[in-house]
Structure formats: structure tokens, C-alpha cells
UniProtKB/TrEMBL annotation:
Xref: InterPro entries: Transposase_17, Transposase_17_sf
Organism in which the protein naturally occurs: Antarcticibacterium flavum
Protein name: IS200/IS605 family transposase
Domain of life per record: Bacteria
Pfam families with a match to the protein in the record: Y1_Tnp
């Protein structure tokens, strides 16, 4: 849309179904590249994607005419399809339903990039669930602990 100006930085976090440790080192970088390309295909711009064996962090420069939910739906569906078609795993790969998304100002972007770059080191001290709950508390988001990336029954 002409004369529309924006600056929207979103940090999205999503997990492997049941928080399984399925993202393997040998194809992890390719997965993050695929995720980045899928985000760029929406017209948004990937700044960084990184994570560990059980979850992914993405910092995205959003466009105002697409919702975060649309972007995440596209990324999660097409990246899980890519993983399954690549036959990296003996079983079917799925992402957990839902995601977390948090907004930042331009001045905070360098810190968020560093945080996402250092995921491996960060998770030597804290589990993914502890990290996720810390985000919810930091951003003052109400939640029910029973539904934080629900485990199988």
C-alpha cells in the first residue's frame, strides 16, 4: 500500500511437538535457512532464526498487511513438510500447536539477535519451558502452566 510506513519487529518462538529433541545438528542450519526463506516468501524479512533440538526462535521484520499467525502457520506447515520429505527422521515430524510472539523496538534488536545467536549456550543453564515461562512473565502475559506446550497424555 502506497504511503504506508512501518517498523515492526517480532520475536516468535515455537517448539517441536511434545518438546521432542528431534532437530539434529547435521540438518539444523538447513532447517533455519528454510524457515528464513519461508518467512521471506510472505513478504516479511527474517533477521535471524536459530534454536536448539526442541525449539526455534525467529526475529522477523513484519509487514503490516499480514498477521503473525499467518506467517507462523506458513512457516510451521511448510518446514515440517520439508523435514518429513527430507526423511531426516524415522517418524513423522510435527511442530507443537501454538507459538509465542513478542514485540521489540529497533533499539532492542541487537540484544534480541545476540540472545537468539546464543541459544545453545543459553540452554546449558535453562530448559526451554523455563525460558518460555520467563518470556511470558517478562511481557506480563497471563498463562495457565497446564497448557504450556502440553505433553502427551
Amino acid at each position: 500500500m502506497a504511503n504506508t510506513h512501518h517498523q515492526i519487529f517480532i520475536h516468535s518462538i515455537f517448539a517441536v511437538k511434545h518438546r521432542g529433541s528431534l532437530i539434529q545438528q547435521q540438518w539444523k542450519a538447513d532447517l533455519f535457512a528454510v524457515i528464513g526463506n519461508l518467512i521471506n516468501e510472505t513478504g516479511c524479512k527474517i533477521i535471524i532464526a536459530n534454536g536448539t533440538e526442541d525449539h526455534v526462535h525467529c526475529l522477523i521484520s513484519m509487514k503490516p498487511d499480514i498477521s503473525v499467525s499467518e506467517v507462523m502457520k506458513n512457516v510451521k506447515a511448510k518446514s515440517s513438510k520439508w523435514i518429513n520429505e527430507s526423511r531426516f527422521l524415522d517418524s513423522r515430524f510435527e511442530w507443537q500447536s501454538g507459538f509465542g510472539t513478542f514485540s521489540y523496538s529497533k533499539s532492542q534488536v541487537p540484544d534480541v539477535i545476540r540472545y537468539i545467536q546464543n541459544q545453545e549456550e543459553h540452554h546449558k543453564k535453562m530448559t526451554f519451558v523455563e525460558e518460555y515461562i520467563q518470556f511470558l512473565k517478562k511481557f506480563e502475559i497471563e498463562y495457565d502452566k497446564r497448557y504450556i506446550f502440553k505433553m502427551p497424555e
